[in-house]
Amino acid sequence: MISGVITTNSKKKTLASYYRPPNRTDNEYLEYTQNEFNCLKNSTKKNILIIGGDFNIPDINWEHNIQPNHLSSKQRCKPIPDIGNSDHDIVLLDTSIKAQKPKPVKLEIQLCKITNIDEIQNEVRLFAEIFNQKTFSNTENMWKYFKENIIKIIDQKVPTKMTTTKFTRPWINTNIKRLIRRKQKAYKKSRKTRKKRDRDRYKYLQQQTQMEIRKARKVYE
């Protein structure tokens, strides 16, 4: 049996696939299978558990023995008629799964555009004078000293900022942000005044904003 876990926005679902050879009916194999199912069940107690595969159990009437443990799946689980000369019933289970988008991680980025290059050059010149006067026992120590000091200069002279953990849309430029602010301002005003003129202005800005976002996204992609 193989299994995997799918994480959705609502709940985790464990999908397992199992095959039992028709000739394996001995107690040792059945006990092993039972222990395997129990381990899977105990390790995923809070998950929705879906087990499929070929059990080779022809004595079960699947039309009257389909009882999913999750209400959302109960009405959508049904057997499919035999295909060709096969002696198997296929059980169709329709479930809704939506992948969970991972939350962005905060990263520190360097703001090179607003960096004072002259200050960095002065610091590098001072370091170069000190570096040329030092002696090193081997190349590795020389490289380590050089690298540490250059990184130190960068950390001191290059400003940084942390990225946001919100989901960003890189095609949203400055003009679109300005339009969004104007739209939000118009919305608040229309809610406050209840005038048709203000409401029409808000709808106009809403349409303009949507149009500009679609254009920018199309160009970006």
Record keyword descriptors for this entry:
single chain; 221 residues; alpha+beta; three-stranded mixed β-sheet; two-stranded antiparallel ribbon; 6 helices; 46% helix
Tell me about this structure:
By secondary structure, the chain is α+β, with helices and mostly antiparallel strands. Helix content is 46%, strand content 16%. The protein has helices at residues 27-43, 71-74, 117-133, 139-157, 174-193, 196-220; strands at 2-7, 12-19, 48-54, 77-80, 90-93, 108-110, 160-162. The strands form three sheets. The chain has a three-stranded mixed β-sheet with strand order 1-2-3, with no helix packed on it. Helix 5 packs antiparallel against helix 6 (196-220). The two termini are 42 Å apart. Pfam families: Exo_endo_phos_2. This is Endonuclease/exonuclease/phosphatase domain-containing protein. Residues 15-90 form the Endonuclease/exonuclease/phosphatase domain.
Oligomer: single chain
The largest sheet has its strands arranged as 1-2-3
Low-pLDDT windows of residues = 69-77
Largest sheet, if any? Answer: 3 strands, mixed
Give the proportion of residues in helices. 40-55%
What structural class do you assign from the helix and strand content?
A: alpha+beta
**What general outline do the C-alpha atoms trace?**
flat
- Terminus-to-terminus distance: 42 Å
Strand elements, count: 7
Q: Mean pLDDT, nearest integer? A: 80
Radius of gyration: 32 Å
What's the tally of helices? Answer: 6
What is the H/E order? Answer: EEHEHEEEHHEHH
Kindly estimate the percentage of residues that lie in beta strands according to DSSP.
15-25%
